[in-house]
Every structure is written in structure tokens, then in C-alpha cells.
Amino acid sequence: MSPTAGVDWKALHGDFFAGCTTLVTGGAGFIGSHLAEALARLGASVAVLDDLSGGSRENLLSSSHVEFVEGSILDRDLLARCTRGRRFVFHQAALGSVPRSIEQPRLYNDVNIVGTLNVLEAAREMKVARVLFAASSSAYGENPVPWVETMPPGPHSPYAATKLAGEGLLQAYASSYGLDTVSLRYFNIFGPRQNANSAYAAVIAAFAKALLAGQRPVIYGTGEQSRDFTFVANAVQANLLAARHSRPLGGEVINVGCGARISVNELAGAMGAALGRGELVPIYQPPRAGDLMHSFADLKRAADRLGYRPIVEFRPGLEQTLAWYRAALSR
What we know:
Blueprint (H helix, E strand, L loop, with lengths): L8 H5 L7 E5 L4 H12 L3 E6 L15 E5 L5 H8 L4 E4 L6 H6 L1 H21 L4 E7 L21 H20 L3 E6 L2 E2 L12 H10 L5 E3 L5 E2 L2 E2 H13 L7 E5 L5 E2 H11 L8 E3 L14 H7 L7 H15 L3
Helix pairs in contact: 2-8, 3-5, 5-6, 7-9
């Protein structure tokens, strides 16, 4: 099954990307592989740079439009070679997970901050037209929802701090060097290919793995925390719209979400019912350090600047995702 079943990228973007040269860092990972696939289907030439620490070659579309390079954004020479001749750089490579960042803050600094600096330096030297950065809504901290881009940031974890630092670097490079950049603040992206086999798995992936194995899902905290769960096709659409934008974006920060929220308790109930495992009620554990109570995206800037609106809502996205996990976790 296509990870973005029902999305006609050609109808949305026409021939804009046909023959366009692009680099997707982290392109064998969860979000990056969806983006690389959409670009390839639109006729772009896609170089994927990934060290496979969190991704898989199996995630990549088999296409003459996709070239895979195994390596790290910490390898500056390799990064420069991959960036040469590219019009757009979609910088998706990063270490995710708030809990893991609390355990390994130096590693997160090296990969997420130094790695982003390396990407920007390569893009500047190779005269890339625009760098698009996978930023994170975790930068908002405990601001009252809905979260608006003009709010002061308040990162509560090393992960959030590294993503916020990346935004600062993109703004600095736009101001100092004229390299056009944009930071897309993702809100709880989910979908097919999201890793369920990690100790740090995101909540939908973790719930799917537990329920399909006949186990009760684990909720950290009361479960009344809420999230703006956003299907991965929406993140892809935001990137494509931002790449196509006709005027400089100048390091701007733009939310990418669904503009709705659901509590973790509601999520567990909906997934249990959908998988026929409604009897598997959650186990509650103490809250984890760095976790936030609520997230909820204000999408006015995204609509005004990019013409963005969600193209796949939460419920249909969840159905596609659960169908993928049923197949993937039964292998």
C-alpha cells in the first residue's frame, strides 16, 4: 500500500518538480522517505543521504529518480558532494525522541545542531536555492494552546532545544548569507513506516505494537494530555508547498499540523476499537521528564504563507496507519 494512499501529488503540484534536483537528508527514515517518494513520483531527481541509524533502505521507493547514499550529515565532505547541483535541500535527518535526548544530550547536540550547521554550510557553498528544515512543535513548551508562531519558545528537553537551535541557525543563514530557508514545525507526525520497535517509539506506533500483540498499551501520565496528531502526507504537502513558494521565506517558522487535538486516552480507545482489542485497557505509568501536556497548532500562518491546509485528516490517516501496522507487524 502506498503510504499516502488517496493523495494525487500530480494533481496538487503538476509539473513543478519535474526534473528538479533535490536532496533529502534522512530520506530513508519515516518522514523523509515519504517526502522522497512524493518528489520521485513528481519527476524530481532525488538524492537521499541517510546513515540508516533510524531509517531503512526498505522505506525507499525503487525508482530511477532516487539515488541512495549511505552516510551521515556529520561527514562534511560527503554532505558537500551530495548537495552539489541540488536546487532544494529538505533537511529531515535528526535524532528524535524526548526521553532519549534526556539520556544522551551530547549526542543530540552533535547530530541535531552540528549536523544542521553542516547542512547549511554545504547549501551555502553549493548555492542551493532553499533549505527546508524539519523543526518541532516541542519548541513551544508549556505555552497555552493553540500554539502560534509568535509565541516565545520554551523548550523542555534537549531534543526541543536542539530543534529550536536549528531554527536559529536557519534564520541566521538567511540573514547573514542570503540563503533562503524555512523551518516547518511539525506537530506529532504519524503514519506508515514510523518505527514501532524502538524503546522510544512514538505513541501511535507504540500503541499499535502493543495492541496487535494482545498487550495493554502504556500511557505515561493521566492520559488527558492532548496532541495535534498529523498524518505524514500533511508534512509532505507542507514541504512541497514551501519549496514551490515564489518569494523568499527568509528563515520563517511555520506550523505544520491538523489544527485539531485528541487526548491520549481517546487515542487509546479509538485504536483499541479499530483493532478489535477494546478490552485491552491502558496501563498508566508516571509522567516522563520533558513530556508536554498539550499541543495544538494554529495554522493561520501556514495558510496565509503557503496555502497549506491538511489534505488527510486524523481519522482517515489513522485507518491507513493501522492497516500498515497490521501488515508490517505480522511479518
